[in-house]
């Protein structure tokens, strides 16, 4: 099949590459000409495990193309994916200008039947708005489909190639047939393609992300309570997660969720509820808890250093909002860095993939280390902000030698408090008693 993917960010690039991998001819479009040029030269604009091989193979085998020319890309394509940003607008609602703008551009260019598929996360009712734009700007028949994307950055290729489910919102029988054929290679193990109406599909994505964000905020509150009650959140997590109705995954406490999806999607669902005269109370709490949780490590630091962080140096391990990505959108690390700099502290950071993105955002306000141990030299404490695998079993003796004081604040509970006390560290983590 001939496919155009509009927008080549984390979702668009993975979608385009993975669709080319099963034999489709895919043209990816982006308005960022520099990015398009990079990809045309075989360079990836993002870090995402597993994508590199597929990206190169499909470019070489001429199934994957990149362009800034929308008209050329959609002329022959029956299927057009919209993988465009839907950032929060001024009032917390999703900004639909990218999706609606591109829909109008496409409507004015087409001369044959197209299946227009929204992969972006969009509020309920967006499919109706997209349909209206096509009705107003062209006589050509189109099917407008809501096909929300559930991939996770860091395992995006795996998620796309073997999704738990594919949700397709459409009433158009021809579009259903085309998409069933398109997605068949990805659901060979029997995972479902779930067909539904557009509104339910749009809401499914927000409900899924908001539920996951709620799970995180709930466990963060349990962790905070553990510290007050002298309980160990790791034990509570195991005890709770063994119940199949709850499940073992997504129960890890930390320093708040970040990324480009959870914060904006929870906010957008709360706003959408409000617009429709419904006060979604849980979501307000989820947002509030998350914002407080991003300060938890700073509060612990202030308590330890008697509110005097001025002139002290802190080593940070991890900047991306989660491991295996270079994405720093809404990352808790940015909140922590902001507080430290405001308090007059110095920051030396190390991240395996995200340092360039932080540098592009805040420049030389902090120092960037060549490796994880380099960051520690002479620092008053180490702060662990992202659970990259390379941080899981470090050389603790080396850490102790390099730090000015043997102090670790761990926002991701990577180590055993008992073991850390044995190494002679003061070790403070989330939802467990401080050790040392
Ligand atoms: P992104 O910001 O990484 O990428 C968007 C891309 O679209 C950018 O490259 C931008 O230059 C391009 N673009 C903007 N306007 C354009 C236009 N008119 N024509 C062509 N290209 C244009 O965004 P993303 O993270 O890929 O997210 C896209 C959508 O998918 C969002 O709605 C997001 O909520 C949703 N989503 C994201 C994830 C994720 O993990 N990132 C997962 C599921 C769903």
From TrEMBL:
EC annotation from Swiss-Prot or TrEMBL: 1.1.1.22
Superkingdom of origin: Bacteria
Start and end residues of each UDP-glucose/GDP-mannose dehydrogenase C-terminal domain: 315-417
GO function term, MF aspect, one: UDP-glucose 6-dehydrogenase activity
SUPFAM superfamilies: 6-phosphogluconate dehydrogenase C-terminal domain-like, NAD(P)-binding Rossmann-fold domains, UDP-glucose/GDP-mannose dehydrogenase C-terminal domain
Positions annotated to bind NAD(+): 30, 35, 86, 121, 153, 264, 329
BP GO terms, sorted: polysaccharide biosynthetic process; UDP-glucuronate biosynthetic process
Family annotation (Pfam families): UDPG_MGDP_dh (PF00984), UDPG_MGDP_dh_C (PF03720), UDPG_MGDP_dh_N (PF03721)
Enzyme class: oxidoreductase
UniProt-listed PANTHER family: UDP-GLUCOSE 6-DEHYDROGENASE TUAD (PTHR43750)
Function as written in the Swiss-Prot or TrEMBL entry: Catalyzes the conversion of UDP-glucose into UDP-glucuronate, one of the precursors of teichuronic acid.
Family: Belongs to the UDP-glucose/GDP-mannose dehydrogenase family.
Protein name: UDP-glucose 6-dehydrogenase
């Amino acid at each position: 099949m001939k496919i155009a993917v509009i927008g080549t960010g984390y979702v668009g690039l993975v979608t385009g590459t993975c669709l080319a991998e099963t034999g489709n001819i895919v043209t990816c479009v982006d308005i960022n000409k520099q990015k398009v040029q990079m990809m045309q030269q075989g360079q990836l604009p993002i870090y995402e495990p597993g994508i590199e091989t597929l990206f190169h193979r499909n470019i070489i085998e001429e199934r994957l193309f990149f362009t800034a020319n929308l008209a050329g890309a959609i002329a022959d394509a029956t299927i057009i994916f919209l993988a465009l940003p839907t950032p929060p607008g001024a009032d917390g609602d999703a900004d639909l200008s990218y999706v609606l703008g591109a829909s109008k551009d496409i409507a004015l260019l087409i001369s044959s039947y197209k299946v227009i598929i929204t992969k972006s996360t969009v509020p309920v009712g967006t499919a109706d708005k997209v349909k209206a734009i096509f009705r107003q700007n062209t006589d050509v028949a189109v099917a407008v489909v809501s096909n929300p994307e559930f991939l996770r950055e860091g395992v995006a290729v795996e998620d796309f190639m073997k999704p738990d489910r594919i949700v397709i919102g459409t009433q158009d029988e021809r579009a259903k047939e085309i998409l069933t054929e398109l997605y068949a290679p990805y659901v060979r193990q029997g995972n479902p393609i779930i067909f539904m109406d557009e509104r339910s599909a749009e809401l499914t994505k927000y409900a899924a992300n908001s539920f996951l964000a709620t799970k995180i905020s709930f466990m963060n509150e349990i962790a905070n309570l553990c510290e007050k009650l002298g309980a160990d959140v790791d034990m509570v997590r195991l005890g709770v997660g063994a119940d199949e109705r709850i499940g073992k995954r997504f129960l890890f406490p930390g320093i708040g969720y970040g990324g480009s999806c959870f914060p904006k999607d929870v906010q957008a669902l709360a706003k959408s509820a409000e617009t429709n005269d419904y006060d979604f109370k849980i979501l307000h709490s989820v947002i509030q808890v998350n914002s407080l949780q991003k300060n938890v490590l700073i509060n612990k630091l202030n308590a330890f250093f008697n509110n005097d962080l001025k002139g002290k140096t802190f080593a940070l391990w991890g900047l991306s909002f989660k491991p295996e990505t270079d994405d720093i959108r809404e990352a808790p690390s940015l909140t922590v860095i902001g507080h430290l700099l405001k308090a007059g502290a110095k920051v030396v950071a190390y991240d395996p993939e995200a340092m360039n993105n932080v540098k592009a955002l805040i420049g030389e306000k902090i120092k960037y280390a060549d490796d994880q141990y380099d960051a520690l030299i002479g620092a008053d404490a180490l702060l662990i902000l992202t659970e990259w695998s390379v941080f899981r079993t470090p050389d603790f003796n080396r850490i102790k030698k390099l730090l000015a004081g043997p102090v670790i604040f761990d926002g991701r509970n990577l180590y055993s408090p008992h073991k850390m006390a044995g190494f002679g560290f003061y070790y403070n983590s989330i939802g467990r008693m401080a050790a040392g």
